[in-house]
Amino acid sequence: MIIESIKRVGKITNSVWLFFLDLIFPIECLGCSREGRWLCEQCFKQIKFKSRQYCLHCKKENNFGEFCPPCGILYGLDGVWIAALYDELLISRAIKSLKYHFTSGLAGDLSELMILFVDRLLKESRTLKSGLTGSGVGWRNFKRAEKLPLAILNFKENLIMPVPLSKRRLRWRGFNQAELLARRVAEKYGLELDKDNLIRTKHKKAQAKLNEIERLKNIKDCFVWQGGNLNKRNIILIDDVVTTGATLNECAKVLKAAGAGEVWGLVVAKG
Ligand SMILES: [Zn+2]
Ligand SMILES: [Zn+2]
Question: Do residues 80 and 50 touch, judged by C-beta distance below 8 A?
């Protein structure tokens, strides 16, 4: 009983705290300090999309961020879609703010960026698909179109999932930034969202301070799927940043063990 009331007070404190943060630090653009928005319209327009995607393992450029066949053997994940360049100051600032300074309001702008990026990805795939239906686009495009991921071909059937946080980190931050992004992407395209069944069981060291091999060890066996069989359903996993792909890949392995079809990552940027 006592614990329950402490928990309840804890929750209130959290939202009150966020409210005061907004009062103390007025919202101003991370790019030009103009008041009113975290990313003003003008600065937003300056952000460069990542026009070419690549295999996250060997960095070879391709259309859809898929792992090339020899690299793919090492991964449960099918590929990663990266919306923007992290080395753009504005993007790295925005992501750090979203994660560490509790500015959940930024999720709106960053998800907008993801959405514009997905629009482009779908447009590109439509162009390639028209090659498949024989409108004279040529053999080269025809061959490219053959390799279109199912998650793009049947985009409306995808299941959207945020990369989960551990309970401890969620309590500390007050929100899961990946969930805020996932919610908006799902809403925009009318896709089903599952934010509850993929669980992060262990609270491990923050990945940012580790090298590639340490990351793999650190993240291993951290996720559990609590839902039913996924019956070949294709899944888009959403996170703010990808680095080596170790986290997305661990999620993908767990989801595929539960019957998922393709599993793709969609992130704002590569850190
Ligand atoms: Zn601005
Ligand atoms: Zn590769």
Answer: no
Give the global pTM: 0.84
CA of 251 to the centre of ligand 1 (A): 35
Distance in Å, CA 79 to ligand 2 centroid: 10
Q: How many CA atoms lie less than 13 Å away from 157 in the CB half-sphere?
A: 15
Name the token pair of 81. Answer: 């879609």
pLDDT tens per residue, range 125-161: 888 777 665 555 565 565 566 678 999 999 999 999 9
Nearest ligand, CA of residue 58?
Answer: 2
Q: How far is the CA of 50 from the centre of ligand 1 (A)?
A: 20
- Residue 234 Cα to ligand 1 midpoint, Å, equals 37
Q: With CA atoms as reference, report the closest residue to 106 among 92, 118, 86, 120.
A: 92
Q: Give dist(CA 176, CA 173) in Å, integer.
A: 7
Instruction: Give distance in angstroms: CA of 40 to centre of ligand 1.
Output: 4
Please give the DSSP secondary-structure letter assigned to residue 207. Answer: G
Reported as type and span, the H/E element at residue 124 is helix 106-132
CA of 54 to the centre of ligand 2 (A): 8
Q: Which of 200, 207, 198, 208 is nearest to 236 (CA)?
A: 198
CA–centroid distance, residue 106 to ligand 1 (Å):
13
Distance CA 262, CA 256 (A): 8
